[in-house]
Amino acid sequence: MIMRRLLATGMAGGLLATLVCGLLPAGAAADDGEPAAQPAPKVELVLDVSGSMRATDIDGQSRMSAAKQAFDDVLDSTPQNVQLGIRVLGADYPGNDRKTGCKDTRQLYPVGPLDRTEAKTAVATLAPTGWTPIGPALLAAADDLKAGGDGTRRMVLITDGEDTCNADPCDVARDIAAQGIHLTIDTLGLIPDTKTRNQLSCIAEATGGTYTTVQHKAQLTDKVQQLVKRSTDPVVTPVATRGAGSCADAPVLKAGLYSDRETFSENRWYRVAVPPGRELRASVTIADDRAVNAGYGVLLRGVTLHGREIVRDDEGGTGRTDAVSAGIRYPKPKADDDTPPETVCLQVGNSFSAPATVKTTPGLPVELVIDLVPSPDQPSDVAFFGLGRGWWLLGLLTLTGGIAGLLTGWVARWRTNTGRAS
């Protein structure tokens, strides 16, 4: 038993070394050069300053006071490389005219390098005032964040109530997601009711963000700090594309990660050039970011330019998942002559439907992954499920770990037997 445990430990150590080395980019272990600079992440904090923020139910103080104190702490801890801005809603108009109140949003501090003193001074001037135009504030904040740069974009909405204007902020969030700017919206509810909680959850889900209920100032501070720092995490941003109604008009895609939008029961087409000696691997995921009818499916198939089907996969869902995926593989054998790449038409379809009360626009979010790897019958520099070059070294590490575990086990067993004999 001891020997088995130690053997397993040795094998695990070897495999761990394999994984750690393999997950590094090709040549990373031998390259001591400086890593490429990451684009500066952008974050905008969107704060509700409506009249209801006067309520004194957060640790014995008003919601506005708790938010101000939390903002001071967050501004002090914001990483240097984060470009941070602040937008407010309901901060200026105290009257009863809905049309005017629903335009009450402004940028308090522009998105950019952070001057902590200036930002704190701006926050200190705020006082609970007016309406809660969440939808208009989301649209304006999206415009604040979309300009320039390829860094991550994140919006953090802090509010104590639902939107008091005509626009459904959940639909607004879907429209923002459909713009293809890859903006994540996180929402924090200050002791909200069920309707507010549902609305904020929907906003977050529409953009891949998170929703959190906050009841104490420390919770608010910790959560906003966490979300701001999360913006610095490296992410792979999909490239926005738009499929066509036919293969002839479809965009040509290279290996990479792509995003699109597809309406209910729609088919979209994309093209990929597959060189001889390469295998096309493609997968698609369609998310149901709103209420849909149970019983739906996703289709991914590859066809020739003449319409002959090469490969297909279709997967169904029952309404219990947030997304459904399909994937295909198509190898192109190596030719002896200068055979040109083969154009493969990829069709992405879905059979989603929704209740009559659910808006079908914008379309459902689509994520498409395209990869071209050496065909199975060709020599490959990829092994261990795509762990990269240097596969012989990684295999040696695994073997070494296994032998070390075996030897350690035999030594432990020998010592155990020697002890018993004495």
Describe the structure.
The chain has about 425 residues and is of the alpha/beta class. The chain folds into two domains: about 40-230, von Willebrand factor, type A domain (Rossmann fold), CATH 3.40.50.410; about 240-375, Jelly Rolls (Sandwich), CATH 2.60.120. It is built from nine helices and 15 strands. A six-stranded mixed sheet has the order 3-2-1-4-5-6, sandwiched between helices. The protein has a five-stranded mixed sheet with strand order 7-8-15-10-13, with no helix packed on it. α7 (about 195-205) links the parallel β5 and β6. The radius of gyration is 27 Å and the shape is elongated. The two termini are about 20 Å apart. The model is unreliable at about 1-30 and about 380-395 (pLDDT under 50). It holds the Pfam family VWA_2. InterPro entries: CLCR (IPR051266), VWF_A (IPR002035), vWFA_dom_sf (IPR036465). Keywords: Membrane, Signal, Transmembrane, Transmembrane helix.
